[in-house]
């Protein structure tokens, strides 16, 4: 039996995890920082002016504060002009620009710098705030999310802005609640008096989350100790509605109408609830009172809805047209006029009116939906289908369009189309009750028609019904085999696991179960099923079939050599030989991936060549392109970057089915890393991970850590301790137990006049990493002038063996002993270490 599924994407992504290439961290040479650039000098002057401005503002001298802030902004802008990529200069422009409310300027100056340094919170915070203030929400929200995720107290306002956005603009309840709770956790006690605003927004967020209990609690906390607020009380009413406590909600609103008789929102909501509760007379009272308050569009719309509920569509039409007079183009009123006309039997007028509305530019989903439904009720089915296809285009991720198309096709008895429509609706909204009901009815109609014409259901449906009626291992085997052929591995596994528990189970039941488990990614359980099949196999041909299945399970378990051995010797079974032919090249590619993970580029290339000899279907086939992709990665590890780039382009253009959307960017980032082009590699990685893919998370973290380490080494080598420290800390956050990173961060601390901290770290790491011992000796010799301790440290370092600086250190030790007359002494040998770090010299 051939295995039909493509190679696992998870395994393909693992091809990029090249542990040896991401390798050890170089220990850091220690240099003094270089002189300041002109941009850095201007930044320093600007920071001094900024501090002066802050002091003036604190003392109440607003005029001086304004002047000094303007001076600081001028200097920061000059610094940024000198060095357009300077993060400190751009951050200064942002901070001072916010103080002066120069949001346009901040957005313009910071955007290009942030694009190159998207991990810099000091840029993200002012840029996000400025974009938000400019109401450029689509640009602002992703930036503010990045700042919010850091959870820094100084960025408190970001949580408030995002909470407002989610609760009031984008209607995202979970996100709103998360941001507002983060605000409450971080806000200082001295501003707790304004928490009522946050709790009201939290209530709105909980309503969006359909959590009435939490919403009620938030609204009550917002209301406590303050004069009665209409908006808060209406929020409490909305919570009651969610809980199904309609009488209590209406009673609360009625009380509000008595205490706040001139607040229209209360009467409108009460009128709507009365209509929903089938109380048109009560709703009419509220609608008339609402009209008397000012005759707003909302008032006439409510009164029109009341008239429709009372069966008086002509009067309703009058009210709806009044809404359109007051608010031309109101989509809800246009829909209502059309419905009122239809209710009066004036179908052609209704269609003409709604057609006019959409042609005038009203692009509402509800309006198009109503137009199509009115056409269907008028018997104009072709136009109904045409219009409802437009609804599908307008809302491709919602079920509504497919439901309407289903109703159109149902009305004309086109059962295949009807079933397709409702199946698509269920695919988009799996829990939609209407879609389930009408799909079931359409299936019943089609079953009746097919039975009348003598047509039989397909094999899977027949077998599923058969298995419902007859729970036998033979029937489970047939249904399981059909489902496997269909690619429904999960359902096949469920059926076959029931089948092997039934009497008269045969070896083939376990064989099929093994393949079903393989298809669901359960390789260990699949191996057990194949082993059980082997125990029951009646002859050598059956054993060959089982061996082929075991080979595929071994591949998934990472036992590639064992799988290759089985596939190279398939035995006499025709089915086993088919499996071997279909999977031998894939097995070689799998081993190539494993060798890439181990940093063995040459070995990986050899396996690719073996896969090509076994047959990959040509360079344009999916498997052939996978082989080219693997070979390109191997060439990159061998330093053949030109060949690697060309191979990646060929294998990923156009994007094959086995690749993920970001595979090309990830591969490019990896090749750039190997070429030591770190900024370009980071940009490619950032582009690739804009939309994270869960199975790539670990590799992305490893790669990010490697970039940080390499950046730290570069910064240290040029004397930029600030950047080196930042990069090392970022790398340590991803790998907190990495002793080489801890060691190198201590080197940075040493150069930052924190010798005691660095020495403490080296003493802790001694025995884990030889360079720690070497640095202890250098410190003892040059800073503390303790020659004896230095010589002892050099002895311990040499005793560790295998140190790359051994010759130089032996010379230092011998000279010190000769100069100071110290005797040779044996030092205990430390335990061998697997940590990798290059030497550190004073």
UniProtKB/TrEMBL annotation:
GO biological process: receptor-mediated virion attachment to host cell
Stretches forming TPR repeats: 53-86, 297-330, 365-398, 399-432
N-terminal signal peptide: 1-29
Gene3D superfamilies: Tetratricopeptide repeat domain (1.25.40.10)
Listed name of the protein: Tetratricopeptide repeat protein
Cited Pfam families: TPR_16
Annotated transmembrane regions: none
């Amino acid at each position: 039996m051939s295995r039909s599924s493509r190679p696992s994407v998870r395994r393909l992504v693992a091809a990029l995890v090249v542990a040896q290439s991401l390798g050890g961290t170089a220990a850091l040479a220690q240099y003094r920082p270089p002189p300041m650039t002109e941009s850095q000098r201007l930044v320093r002057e600007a920071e001094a002016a900024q501090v002066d401005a802050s002091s003036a503002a604190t003392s109440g001298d607003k005029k001086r504060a304004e002047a000094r802030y303007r001076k600081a902004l001028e200097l920061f802008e000059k610094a940024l002009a000198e060095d357009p990529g300077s993060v400190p200069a751009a951050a200064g422009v942002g901070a001072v620009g916010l103080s002066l409310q120069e949001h346009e300027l901040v957005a313009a100056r910071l955007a290009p710098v942030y694009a190159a340094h998207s991990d810099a919170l000091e840029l993200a915070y002012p840029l996000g705030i400025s974009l938000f203030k400019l109401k450029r929400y689509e640009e602002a929200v992703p930036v503010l999310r990045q700042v919010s995720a850091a959870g820094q107290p100084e960025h408190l306002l970001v949580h408030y802005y995002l909470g407002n956005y989610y609760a009031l603009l984008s209607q995202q309840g979970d996100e709103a609640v998360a941001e507002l709770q983060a605000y409450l956790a971080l806000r200082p006690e001295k501003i707790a008096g304004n928490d009522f605003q946050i709790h009201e927004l939290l209530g709105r967020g909980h309503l969006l989350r359909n959590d009435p209990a939490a919403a009620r609690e938030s609204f009550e906390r917002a209301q406590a100790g303050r004069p009665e607020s209409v908006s808060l009380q209406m929020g409490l009413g909305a919570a009651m509605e969610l809980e199904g406590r309609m009488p209590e909600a209406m009673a609360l609103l009625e009380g509000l109408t008595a205490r706040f008789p001139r607040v229209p929102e209360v009467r409108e909501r009460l009128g709507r609830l009365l209509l929903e509760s089938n109380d048109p007379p009560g709703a009419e009272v509220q609608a008339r009172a609402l009209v008397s308050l000012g005759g707003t569009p909302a008032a006439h719309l409510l009164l029109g809805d009341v008239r429709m509920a009372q069966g008086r569509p002509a009067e309703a039409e009058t009210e709806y047209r009044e809404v359109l007079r007051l608010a031309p183009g109101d989509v809800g009123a246009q829909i209502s006029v059309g419905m009122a006309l239809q209710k009066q039997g004036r179908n052609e007028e209704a269609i003409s009116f709604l057609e006019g509305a959409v042609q005038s530019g009203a692009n509402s989903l509800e309006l198009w939906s109503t137009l199509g439904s009115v056409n269907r009720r008028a018997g104009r089915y072709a136009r109904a289908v045409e219009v409802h296809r437009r609804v599908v285009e307008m809302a491709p991720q919602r079920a509504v369009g497919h439901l309407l198309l289903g109703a159109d096709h149902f009305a004309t008895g086109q059962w295949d189309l009807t079933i397709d429509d409702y199946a698509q609706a269920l695919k988009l909204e799996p829990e939609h009750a209407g879609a389930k009901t009408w799909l079931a009815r359409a299936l019943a109609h089609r079953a009746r028609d097919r039975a009348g014409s003598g047509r039989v259901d397909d094999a899977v449906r027949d077998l599923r019904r058969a298995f419902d009626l007859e729970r036998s291992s033979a029937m489970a085997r047939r249904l399981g085999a059909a489902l496997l052929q269909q690619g429904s591995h999960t359902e096949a596994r469920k059926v076959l696991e029931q089948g092997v528990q039934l009497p008269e189970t045969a070896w083939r039941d376990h064989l099929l179960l093994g393949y079903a488990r393989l298809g669901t990614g359960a390789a260990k359980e699949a191996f057990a099923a194949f082993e059980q099949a082997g125990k029951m196999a009646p002859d050598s041909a059956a054993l060959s079939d089982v061996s082929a299945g075991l080979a595929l399970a071994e591949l998934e378990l990472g036992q590639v050599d064992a799988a290759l051995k089985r596939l190279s010797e398939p035995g006499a079974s025709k089915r086993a030989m088919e499996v071997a032919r279909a999977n031998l090249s894939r097995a070689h590619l799998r081993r190539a991936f494993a060798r890439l993970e181990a940093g063995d580029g040459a070995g990986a290339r050899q396996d690719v060549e073996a896969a090509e000899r076994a047959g990959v279907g040509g360079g344009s086939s999916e498997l052939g392109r996978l082989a080219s992709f693997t070979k390109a990665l191997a060439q990159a590890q061998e330093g053949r970057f030109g060949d690697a780039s060309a191979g990646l382009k060929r294998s990923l253009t156009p994007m094959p089915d086995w690749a993920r959307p970001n595979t090309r960017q990830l591969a490019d980032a990896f090749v750039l890393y190997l070429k030591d082009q770190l900024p370009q590699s980071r940009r490619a990685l950032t582009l690739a991970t804009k939309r994270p893919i869960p199975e790539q998370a670990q590799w992305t973290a490893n790669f990010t850590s490697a970039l940080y380490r390499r950046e730290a080494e570069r910064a240290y080598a040029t004397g930029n301790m600030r950047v080196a420290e930042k990069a090392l800390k970022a790398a340590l956050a991803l790998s907190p137990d990495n002793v080489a990173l801890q060691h190198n961060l201590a080197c940075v601390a040493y150069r930052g006049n924190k010798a005691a901290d660095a020495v403490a770290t080296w003493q802790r790491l001694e025995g884990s990493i030889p360079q720690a011992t070497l640095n202890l000796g250098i410190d003892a010799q040059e800073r503390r002038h303790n020659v004896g301790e230095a010589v002892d440290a050099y002895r311990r370092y040499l005793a560790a063996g295998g140190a790359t600086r051994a010759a130089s250190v032996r010379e230092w030790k011998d000279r010190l002993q000769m100069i100071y007359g110290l005797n040779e002494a044996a030092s205990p040998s430390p335990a061998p270490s697997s940590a990798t770090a290059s030497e550190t010299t004073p």
